[in-house]
Specification:
- The chain is an alpha/beta fold.
- α13 runs antiparallel to α14.
Length: about 500
């Protein structure tokens, strides 16, 4: 933990006792001003940023990797700090399920209820529960949903769709995943999104989940469709060209998940990959489109942003891509934070749905991933839909969620030896993958853990998010911060 982070923790303790706060100096440091909290203060806008799979070590490792041991990420500059417990419950029961998935966690903060893993916008017994975004839209707010995953995936979907199981995405699905409490079929999530008008700005991946018919419906409801739904992915240039203060926009920039940042720069410099906007670019554009609309000027806006690939690359135990996705997510946080500091009426919240893979910073040893075979985790060139090959190059690495500790791939040294990275504190000659690099990282497993996750916040009502809280509390506290009356 950096000296500045320690100072921020101390500042949070002051906030908890007095309602006042400061944060130690950085390029994004907050000054004393009315935007820094007070439980009764009303925010006009909310920007909720979710680092999918982001635990405390993900934050610390990315901070050290990019800014050195005494540096900090943009999210660490947000002055109010806390932690969030993330457990789910078993289906048709209130019995705790200690390790959540993204669907149940996203439903918790979107609708304020504990539910079973894989549930989207329904409670533990399958009943539909209204979401914060739906209720904000009904109350006149502008709304937006941004993700580097398919926009039909669990975290974005839980804000503006409902399904018994997260696999109900479309255009193909199993009947069981799209079945209501009464046995009638739900529309697939993609069709719900295309027809419910809940989000005014929709940016992410998953173009193949939609059909030309969905585009016809959305255009009839006033959406500008970038690319062509179901056939042609949108581009960053098309997004940058969107103008107008009251536009409804959907842009889906990949048939599936967006490309991880490391691969954009190295392994897959194709025209389509280079045409994808980054998460910071999508975030900044979404804020711009939402903030300058008539509805937002009159009432406000609610925006959710997800850095999805942190989780997906943690599942794959790929430290390089995990850190690259953390950097991209933090740059999106910076865009939101900078806007909020100018605006003074915007609450920014940064947290996670769960921790993924038991990420750890360890002491130096005598054996690194770079010595174990090809490719080492800190030099991976695999795509976001592939896993690294075994050291023998003979087979894809097996799933790592079945073993008692590391899963079925535990014997594969290429995946479980430490990945090492140089930092700003290292001599210039030190390189990634070497024994001399100061940042050594390992994973415990290939699946989620039950660890609490950090929460950082700034703006009117930010002191509501200080200290230990449950993920369901976020629903009530976000609504209270903007004085939105929501379903209990």
């Amino acid at each position: 933990m950096s000296a500045r982070r320690i100072a921020a923790v101390a500042a949070t303790a002051v906030l908890a006792l007095t309602g006042a706060v400061f944060t130690a100096g950085s390029g994004l440091a907050a000054d004393r001003d009315p935007a820094q909290g007070k439980g009764k203060a009303k925010a006009k806008n909310v920007i909720l940023l979710i680092g999918d799979g982001m635990g405390e070590t993900h934050v610390d490792a990315a901070s050290i990797r990019y800014y050195g041991a005494d540096g900090q990420l943009a999210m660490e500059s947000l002055p109010a700090l806390g932690s969030v417990q993330t457990y789910a419950v078993e289906r048709n029961s209130a019995t705790p399920e200690l390790v959540t998935d993204s669907a149940s966690a996203a439903t918790a903060w979107s609708s304020g209820v504990k539910t079973y893993n894989a549930a989207i916008g329904v409670d533990a017994y399958g009943a539909i529960v209204p979401t914060l975004m739906e209720q904000a839209k009904t109350a006149g707010y502008r709304t937006g949903n941004v993700s580097t995953a398919e926009i039909t995936d669990a975290t974005p979907a839980a804000m503006f769709a409902h399904a018994a199981l997260r696999g109900c995405q479309g255009p193909t699905y199993t009947p069981a995943s799209c079945e209501t409490l009464g046995g009638e079929p739900y529309l697939p999530i993609a069709q719900q999104i295309a027809r419910n008008n809940v989000a005014d700005v929709i940016l992410g991946g998953g173009n193949a989940r939609f059909t030309p018919e969905d585009q016809t419906v959305m255009e009839s409801n006033g959406y500008e469709v970038l690319g062509a739904l179901g056939t042609t992915v949108a581009t960053g240039a098309e997004l940058a060209a969107v103008t107008g203060n009251d536009r409804r926009v959907i842009g889906l920039f990949n048939t599936g998940n967006l490309t991880v940042e490391v691969n954009k720069a190295k392994a897959f410099p194709t025209a389509q990959v280079q045409a994808e906007p980054s998460l910071p670019e999508m975030t900044a554009k979404a804020i711009d489109l939402l903030a300058h609309s008539a509805d937002a000027r009159r009432r406000g806006f609610f925006l959710q942003v997800e850095g999805a690939m942190i989780d997906k690359r943690s599942h794959a135990n790929d430290a390089a891509q995990t850190l690259g996705e953390m950097k991209a997510f933090d740059d999106a946080v910076a865009a939101a934070y900078e806007y909020a500091q100018r605006d003074k009426n915007t609450l920014v919240i940064v947290t996670a749905d769960h921790e993924c893979a038991g990420f750890n910073i360890i002491g130096k040893g005598s054996f690194t991933n770079a010595e174990a075979g090809s490719p080492p985790a800190n030099q991976s060139g695999t795509s976001s839909t592939q896993t690294p090959v075994r050291a023998s190059n003979s087979a894809l690495d097996p799933a790592r969620s079945t073993g008692p500790v590391n899963g079925a791939g535990a014997a594969d040294a290429a995946n479980f030896a430490p990945a090492t990275f140089r930092t700003l504190d290292d001599p210039a000659e030190v390189v990634d993958g070497s024994l001399d690099a100061s940042l050594w990282l390992t994973y415990l497993a290939g699946n989620h853990t039950g660890a609490d996750v950090p929460i950082f916040s700034y703006g009117p009502g930010s002191d509501r998010f200080v200290g230990e809280q449950d993920n369901t509390d976020l629903y009530d506290e976000m609504a209270a911060a903007i004085k939105l009356k929501v379903a209990p």
